[in-house]
Amino acid sequence: MLAKVWNSLSNAGIYSNLDSSKSRYVILTNRFVIITSLIGLSLLVLLFIGIPGTGWTLTRIQILVGSFMFLGVILLNRAGFHNISRWIISWLPVLVILYISLTHRIFLRDSVVMKDFFTYRFLIMATAIIPLLVFSTREIFILIVNLIPSFIGVVFFDQIHALFDVGLSQFGYDAPYMYILDITIAFAYFGMVGFILSQRFVMDKFELKLNQQQEILQEKNGELKHKNSFIIEQNHEIVAQSDRLKEINDALIEAQKIIEDQKQQLVDQNKNLEVQVIEKTKDLSRVNEELIINNNELRQFSHTLSHNLKSPVATFQGLLNLFERNELSEANKELLTYLDQSVNNMQEVFSDMNAMLELRNRLYTSIDHVDIQKEIDRLHNNFYLELRKNNIRFDCNCNGVKYINTNEKRLNGILFQLINNAIKFRSDKRDPEIKIKLNGTSEYHSIKIWDNGIGIDLEKYANKLFYPYQKFNSHTGGKGLGLYLVKLQTESLGGSVSIQSELDIFTEVEIRLQK
């Protein structure tokens, strides 16, 4: 229970948008005020137990008020005023100690002894650690400003008390001795602060380096995660293919068993039945051929289905066109319109199936010597009116790459689809931009298409990016086939595709083609 309360108070004011460094400073601030308040309240309890019967003295009231003042810093952190909280805990302890010291000497002058002039002074020196803990060396100016109260309180402790007629000289101590003491304490203060500050510089430098390494690791982790999802997807496809091969293999084994049984029957028959044996052999050969034909037909089934269904749909469309719409009632016109839309949708589905089957079957195998700059210029001309109409800035950097050996038709289809997506999913909040950048290594060409459009929520849709009929933005048209077709075409060229995106910031698609 206590651990839960401790953690809850320590993490007051920690939000998801805070980086690790700022979160640590907030936690340090909260824990400092918690510990300070607990020490104050514990001291108050000890005073009541150790010195009973004195009631609420001035010192006890000051301790109680100071403890609750420190707890107020947690409320400021919870409200999001983190910087104000750090300033308060850098200044407030010094002011509280000075206030207690002054009131002690003013109102309890007879009980003041020599050690009182050192106890409060060294307590103030100890508070110099606070800004060194809760401020980074990257905030060096603010850090130095927050060291000012402890510096003044330590070095000019006696001078401050002298202003209220409670300095050492007012208590009969030697003034020259105090100047030497002030100088000595000043050197001790600078030594302590300088040592701790040098350690903070080393720690902050190490922390910066550690954060940079952490960012690199997170980036690599993201890449590995994406590659892992791609491997999982490939594994699913391999498993599906394996299941299909197993089914075919089982059918072939069954057919082989039938053939072996029939052959055994033929061997056992009378040699005088040669004609019957020949006829049986012909029958078995025909069955084997039919099995092979059926196997091929199964592999082409989806392709044939797509093409053969086009004809009746087209006939249906033709019959719909024969209707004289002017002779129909309004209800029948509306019904005919719905039928027309349904037929058009069916035609689009068959066209999509045909496109996907063509890509799956690798219909295009020719390799061309593609002038990449000329190809991009041609696409720019195709989209020129849309680019100009929507005030889209189009930029291309080939980085010295002139030619790519690949299939020109498929490369054109990939780039066309990605540029079309960048235009379609542009943002209305800023001037749209499309950038194409070519690069690569000795093993592959890299083509990156970047835009500052509405982006994709990868946390939500990362596992659905390259599946057919997947839409990630409800306010735009389309059937959700774009990225799926890009992936099929890229893989048919022996390449790979990856996406980086942040919602409402940018999208970058990288196509890698082997050299």
Can you walk through the features of this model?
The protein has 515 residues and is α+β, with helices and mostly antiparallel strands. The protein folds into three domains: 2-222, no CATH class; 268-360, no CATH class; 368-514, 2-Layer Sandwich (Heat Shock Protein 90), CATH 3.30.565. The chain is 68% helix and 9% strand. The protein is built from 17 helices and seven strands. It has helices at 2-10, 20-50, 58-78, 82-107, 116-126, 129-134, 140-155, 157-163, 175-268, 274-299, 301-322, 330-360, 372-382, 384-389, 408-424, 458-461, 482-492, and strands at residues 368-371, 393-397, 403-406, 433-440, 444-451, 496-502, 506-514. The strands form two sheets. Strands 2-4-5-7-6 form a five-stranded mixed β-sheet, with helices on one face. A two-stranded antiparallel sheet has the order 1-3. Strand 6 and strand 7 form a beta hairpin. It starts with a helix and ends with a strand. 19% of the residues are buried. The model has no long low-confidence stretch (mean pLDDT 80).
